[in-house]
Amino acid sequence: MISLAMYFIAMLGIGLYAYRKSTSDVSGYMLGGRSLPPSVAALSAGASDMSGWILMGLPGAMFVSGFSSTWIAIGLVIGAFLNYLMVAPRLRVYTELANDAITIPDYFANRFEDKGNALRIVSALVIIIFFTLYTSAGVVSGGKLFENSFGMSYESGLYITTGVVVLYTLFGGFLAVSLTDFVQGCIMFLALILVPAVTYSLLDNPLSVTLNDINPQMLTWIGAGGAIGIISAMSWGLGYFGQPHIIVRFMSVRSVKDMPTARRIGMSWMLVATIGAITTGLFGAAYAHENGIVVEDPETIFLILSELLFHPLIAGFLLAAILAAIMSTISSQLLVSSSSLTEDFYKIFLRKDASDTELVLVGRISVALVSLCAIYLAYDRDSTILSLVSNAWAGFGAAFGPLVLLSLFWKRMNFAGALSGMVVGAATVLFWIYGPVTVDGQPLSALIYEIVPGFIAATIAIVAVSLATSEPSTEITDKFEEMQTAL
């Protein structure tokens, strides 16, 4: 508990530092003044991406399913690499050319001359809806952490986790979120090396023998879903192109020349983190089987190993790693949601002439409001961390992924195509999850991950509608050419 208290103090200290450094204007509060060094931007992107699911959700899936769940990690690594390679440099340049856009809806509106604000409104609604769901997944992780490790009530864990995040995000803004993400990313990196390494050293039998004793299916790379299951798992990688809390880091890097460095740092971190999460689940399943340990909730295997195998001081550090993963993502999601509420609703529709001081205040109020909604959703204990994340990940990936990619690579894309693609992508995902249609008694999402049909449908809609409607203005195409030249 002492380790966690020290961690909380450190995070709040960073928030205070950032408050003094960069929150006097809206660009500083929401984008750090586009001045982040590549190391901070890369680890911030990784830490805000991985969240509690890298230490709880993915190990839990590996604990239950074995090697077949590895395809999720493989798809994510490929998607992250392509995101750094294709999206990062172009988005950094283009958002500055597009009237110095500081939010994703702001970029869409400026990129496609959205004079009626339809594109801005729809994209902001998608962000707020799916991020509230996404944030609740992190809050659930915090509730489970405090309940399983400290004997506190699940509800108390929700409020403690959210309270600390809200405080440093509220005051320090984007710089606080990015600096805390950097520290949290380092903690997660060490934890995901330490826990699987120590667990493996304590196994009595070869891993393959023990996993075969548990369930021979754990050793197969092809799960119950067959080829479709592999496609569904790997399609998680498609989501990277449309995650606002990740791609906004690319907008904040101090120069496009820093992108190769950021890519190398970010991908190295991610490879270690995903391998660590995979092996934590597999080695944890073997260790629990050999020692007769009953694991009621597979998503708590990292917690169990930390408490059983390590000295209390080290265990406290490892629990801080879980909290770091949770808090880094919650803070990023709160800030992006707050940015959309402030820049894309309040400033556009309520106070067009609002001062920077007023907008920063509204941004802070928005952080508090979104966090309360997330806590409310997290009271539903039946939802698993991975399922909450997967739904939100698919929503963003389908609604924004094709839109971001094509906006950066296809000059012919226009406003009508952008709006159609966003609506079709989000609607397809929601229908796939909640629609009344079933196949052999199974919901559509059980057949194939909803991001696949959503991404395909959105891409078709963008291309078809753009080609069927008028070409974009010369001003837009000129900026596109300017972006190409700058690269």
TrEMBL record:
* Function statement: Catalyzes the sodium-dependent uptake of extracellular L-proline.
Q: Which gene encodes it?
A: putP
In the record, the note on similarity to other proteins reads: Belongs to the sodium:solute symporter (SSF) (TC 2.A.21) family.
> Domain of life, per the record?
Bacteria
Q: How does it sit in the membrane?
A: Multi-pass membrane protein
* Alphabetically ordered keywords of this record: Amino-acid transport, Cell inner membrane, Cell membrane, Ion transport, Membrane, Sodium, Sodium transport, Symport, Transmembrane, Transmembrane helix, Transport
Pfam families found in the cross-reference section: SSF
For this protein, the record's NCBIfam families field holds:
Na_Pro_sym (TIGR02121), sss (TIGR00813)
Please report the name of this protein according to its UniProt entry. Sodium/proline symporter
Q: Which transformation does this protein catalyse, written as a reaction?
A: L-proline(in) + Na(+)(in) = L-proline(out) + Na(+)(out)
Which PANTHER family does the entry link to? SODIUM/PROLINE SYMPORTER-RELATED (PTHR48086), SODIUM_PROLINE SYMPORTER (PTHR48086:SF3)
First and last residue of the signal peptide: none
The keyword S-adenosyl-L-methionine is assigned to this record: no
Q: Say which species the protein is native to.
A: Pseudoalteromonas viridis
